[in-house]
User: Fold this.
Amino acid sequence: MTSTMEHQTPLVRRSGVHESRGSMAPPSAPGTSTGISRSRAVVTGAATALEPISLAHVTRVAGLQTRTDNKYLLTPEQFAELMDNIPTSTRVLDIDDRRVFSYESMYFDTEDLALFRAHRQRRRRRFKVRTRSYVDTGGTTFEVKLKGYREQTVKHRTPHDFERRRELTGSARSFLHNVLRDEYGVNAPALEPSLMTTYRRSTLVDSQNAARLTCDVDLWCANDHTGAAGPDLVLVESKSAGGRAPADNALKAMGIRPVSLSKYCIGTALVHPGVPANKWNRLLRHHFGWQRSWPGDDGTGSTVCNSSRRT
Assistant:
């Protein structure tokens, strides 16, 4: 085992949720008249202003396969203020003169969403299974993310075929089985594609403090039938081996607290009608315009999302 760092049918918007048949493609990016969201514009501006760092250097100084993550949702204005307070040693990942990259993740779960439920119930032995694709370069990895000692994130990954990025291949199943047997002493459950997310990311690296800051914008969550766009905010993840990075301290001084947010869990709540999501209800309502449609409201008892809302 190695651990390492189509055809589209029309989308119809209903209460901010996009329903389609057989298509996971996002609609045109919301935002300004240029088609670029405010959050994407501010992240792109910050990335352009920083000195570059290579992927090889990032892997060497801040690979962080075992780490502590803190997540924050920032308005474009808050993100700009954060950039004024990060260490001067911070650099931006640059690959072939590109600093903002397109990502696609395909998550796998059981038919009854057992992995989602484990996260909602905060079970000690919980994990996520996904492919992570770097769309600009055509690279894909298969990843198993587990919760380790003191809530640390432990990531195991192996190369995966880009053309089969939405499949759980035989080699991926074998890798998953080995990871779960080694880490938790359990067999891998039967999994199937459950949720796709796409977004744009810029990665900032503070090599002096062995810390990374990922800045995600333009989130889109979908399954084969439904899709929902995220808000015009920047999802910032501060990743460090020590628990608190300089960025965490800067955000604390700004009065901004971490949020409990998982793209998989939030996305699952948005595109799987009626799934219990009590843990994230406040976050979903405030930032994603989400509300539960109780039985009798529309005859389905489904969950809806007003994805046009901007915070």
About this structure: The first helix runs from residue 38 to 49. The two ends are 44 Å apart (CA to CA). Helices lie at 38-49, 55-62, 76-83, 114-120, 170-183, 246-253, 263-271, 281-288.
